[in-house]
Design a protein that fits this description.
The chain has about 220 residues and is mainly α. The protein has helices at about 10-25, 35-60, 85-100, 100-110, 115-120, 125-140, 145-150, 155-165, 190-195, and strands at about 180, 195-200, 205-210, 220.
């Protein structure tokens, strides 16, 4: 039974989990902290749990859905990442774009003249650090961090917002006060909100707060 008293359709969950495994293995996920290999193991464990629950429900190997008989996905190295060369190339391009951004250059130049309150309120150190995070990731060949920067538009928006606030501090009264935190390593509260898909004692899919999650959305600071 689910938490709402409704019987879980484990056959449907199996279909979703197999589809998810195939997607992560070929295209990769978007987890900001964990490799595709780690998330593939989570999905594999979910598949195993769903099959066990189906066996309990049916109490027999007869009448089980076809998806039950699909071969269990193989175990994958925990360091596995899909599309490694594509991630590296996209990170290189993103690095060039970020380094050339005029707003970031302006923020760097003006940061020394800002008060401690302004630096903290506008998340200036974190924003400046975006470029260095990516530079270090490229040097270390850290594919998980590089993947965060494949689409740099949100980082560029953060640079622009920070530059606007420095040029006109009063603009915070006219535009959204929240700066977009694009890199979770720069957000002290992000870890509290990052959750993992796992299973409870009954095999139900539930959420935890300490391990990988397969989907990630940008958090507002």
């Amino acid at each position: 039974m689910s938490k709402r008293g409704q019987r879980t359709d484990y056959a449907a969950e199996l279909e979703k989990s197999y589809a998810r495994w195939d997607e992560v293995f070929t295209k990769g996920g978007s987890d900001p902290f964990w490799t595709d290999g780690v998330n593939l193991e989570l999905v594999r464990n979910r598949i195993i749990s769903c099959k066990q629950q189906l066996e309990k429900q049916e109490n027999s190997l007869f009448g089980l859905p076809d998806i039950y008989y699909r071969e269990l996905p193989p175990e994958v190295d925990c360091n596995y990442m899909a599309r490694p060369d594509e991630i590296r190339e996209n990170a290189r391009k993103a690095m060039e774009i970020i380094d050339a951004d005029e707003n970031l250059k302006f923020v760097r130049e003006q940061s020394a003249s800002l008060s401690e309150k302004q630096l903290k309120q506008w998340s200036i150190p974190a924003i400046i650090n975006y470029a260095e995070n990516l530079r270090r990731a490229i040097a270390k060949d850290d594919l998980v961090i590089m993947r965060r920067y494949e689409h740099p538009d949100s980082y560029l928006e953060s640079f622009e917002s920070a530059a606007m606030r420095i040029r006109d501090p009063e603009c915070t009264r006219r535009i959204n006060d929240n700066l977009t935190i694009c890199d979770p390593e720069d957000d002290e509260d992000f870890m509290d909100d990052c959750s993992e898909t796992e299973q409870d004692e009954d095999g139900e899919i539930s959420e935890s707060e300490s391990e990988p999650e397969e989907d990630f959305q940008l958090r507002l600071f």
